[in-house]
Amino acid sequence: MKDLKQLLKSRKSNTKKSSRKPLKWLFPLSQERKYYAMLLSLIRELNTKIREVLLPEIPSMVREVEGAIVSDRADDFLDRLSGLIFYIRSSMQNKIETTIKGADDTAISVAQFNRAQLAKINENVFGFDLLLNEPYLEDQLKIFSKQNSMLIRSLVDHELTQVSEIVQRGLQQGERFTDIAGDISKTFGIDRRRARTIARDQTSKLNSSLTRLRQMEIGVEEYIWETSHDDRVRKTHKANQGQKFRWDTPPKVTGHPGHDVNCRCVASPVLDKLLE
Known about the structure:
Blueprint: H1 2-10, H2 29-54, H3 58-67, H4 76-91, H5 93-125, H6 137-172, H7 177-217, E1 222-226, H8 235-238, E2 244-246, E3 266-269, H9 272-275
Antiparallel strand pairs: 1-2, 1-3
Helix pairs in contact: 2-4, 2-5, 2-6, 2-7, 4-6, 5-6, 5-7, 6-7
């Protein structure tokens, strides 16, 4: 902070005292969409493997259960089902690792986008970009990588667990193949929504953390809450619109922008003290 004050003082003659408002701090929407597209590709490939590998085997399982002796009904088809699920999970490993790598690249892209927001605001208000050491950046990227690696793997595990349970329940209850297949297809829609939540929530949380850390590093103590100004903004967040908050005192109901699940709000820095 001492170096920053010296920098501001030394360049004061080149800095225009202006009443211009800082540019709006933007949400990394493009990065969120790219991340969602990667997760959706993962789910689609998994869904394809389920259709190609598992579904063709279900009719024979149905016949096997219908013709089996009651005491033997749970033996053979459960082993076959377990083997098919294991095969599908194993065949998805390369796609999973590729998606995890893509998530890491997304984190870097979000960090670069977030950094650009600060640079634009500094240039607009001060006439130059403030230097940043960013000792926290590596840790923030590591946290994102670890969390998203688990979330990506959980997408596949959750889908396969659901499918396995649907098949077991359907066979045990004497359901037809079409009923079982229909229930399986519904899980794809559920996982699509889950993937969208992961993409938006994780992108938002990383952006929010970097916003707070970077603004505080250059001496910003307060921010103005900005929503995305659409009909999806929840009431508690809409109530914060245009309000001033301190970084060391987060709003009790909502937390800082980006903390709530699926929050697309951002924090525009209050630079009055730096301009004094």
